[in-house]
Amino acid sequence: MPDEAVMRQALDAAIRGVRGANPLVGAILVSAAGEVLSTGHHRGAGTFHAERDALESFAREHPAGADLGSATLYSTLEPCRHQGRQPACTRLIIDAGVGRVVHGASDPSSNGGGADVLRRAGVDVVSGVLAQQCEALNHRWVAAAVQARPFVTAHLAQTLDGRIAAPDGTSQWITSKASRDHTHMVRSRTDAILVGTNTVAVDDPRLTARTPTGELTLRQPLRVVMGMTPVRPAQKLTQGLPEGDGWLHLRTRDPLAALQELAQTTHGGYPIKHVLVEGGQSVLSAFFAADLVDEVFAYHAPLLLGAGRSSVGDIGVRTLSEAPRFALDPADSGPVQIMDPDVCVHLQPKGDTCSPES
């Protein structure tokens, strides 16, 4: 098959993954005769990279081993040369004896340079196949990498008319248990959850990740408060294990400054690379206004309030042409999910394309 045709299959595989600390990546291992030997994709931080996923899948089908010297490994992103939670993909490719590698986008992060490592090891490398589509797949992850900040997911749980609280301040619960369970699943795969000091004072949240049965997940994100108001010692998020694993007060109203400080922070032995911003209104507005939101999960409950606090306030838009625009995101189970009886819309800031078919 032509390289472009296989790379399109790799893009289709990549979109099965989840956004966050690491980019979406798909990989296809193909024989010299054009037979697809295995497919892989990255499933999130701490899991196999797409290249390793494809190689491991092939190895399971061929336990006695096989000569891959004439095979080609396609990857939507340049294979990494960095040893982190997972071994460097370049080392795995070399050790597997793969003779040819074709990749789409180059890696703009500090993990880049894998193509040169492979070439020096004698692997035939072709770069830039469907580069535009592969780059567009992760355009916001690239933006975060260039700015040396964590990837940011925004959480909106609101009524049909965009309210997060009634005029009397009541807000629990606007969305359904199914939506809240999904939120906890997203929390469990992030490195930190960020809210404002007003949310802490009014709602006194725990900011923990829990299973649908209410148990704490094994891995808990860092609980982060942003703002100038002091946090009272009795607030629930200040409590230690087992309720939560650490918390941090960022005394700033500048979202970029907050993210840059988090980028220098470790939690559980690893750097903060993915932040979930849950609000409230002032904090969310600041992140949207600064174009620092890379992904949105918007949970819409089938009720109207007509008044009360809105999820997002003034972000500096004075005319329609200034409004930031978002695109449906096909990653992570698709752009629209029904969550009994809510609707969850998955979005990302509009780029050249958000879909491998574009």
Automatic annotation (TrEMBL):
Write one Gene Ontology MF term. Answer: diaminohydroxyphosphoribosylaminopyrimidine deaminase activity
Q: Which reaction does it catalyse?
A: 5-amino-6-(5-phospho-D-ribitylamino)uracil + NADP(+) = 5-amino-6-(5-phospho-D-ribosylamino)uracil + NADPH + H(+); 2,5-diamino-6-hydroxy-4-(5-phosphoribosylamino)-pyrimidine + H2O + H(+) = 5-amino-6-(5-phospho-D-ribosylamino)uracil + NH4(+)
- Name the residues that bind substrate: 171, 187, 203, 207, 210, 278
What is its pathway?
A: Cofactor biosynthesis; riboflavin biosynthesis; 5-amino-6-(D-ribitylamino)uracil from GTP: step 2/4; Cofactor biosynthesis; riboflavin biosynthesis; 5-amino-6-(D-ribitylamino)uracil from GTP: step 3/4
Q: Which UniProt keywords apply?
A: Hydrolase, Metal-binding, Multifunctional enzyme, NADP, Oxidoreductase, Riboflavin biosynthesis, Zinc
Question: CDD domains from the xrefs?
Answer: Riboflavin_deaminase-reductase
Q: What are its cofactors?
A: Zn(2+)
Q: What is this protein called?
A: Riboflavin biosynthesis protein RibD
Q: Which species is the source of this protein? A: Nesterenkonia sandarakina
Q: What is the organism lineage in this UniProt record?
A: Bacteria, Bacillati, Actinomycetota, Actinomycetes, Micrococcales
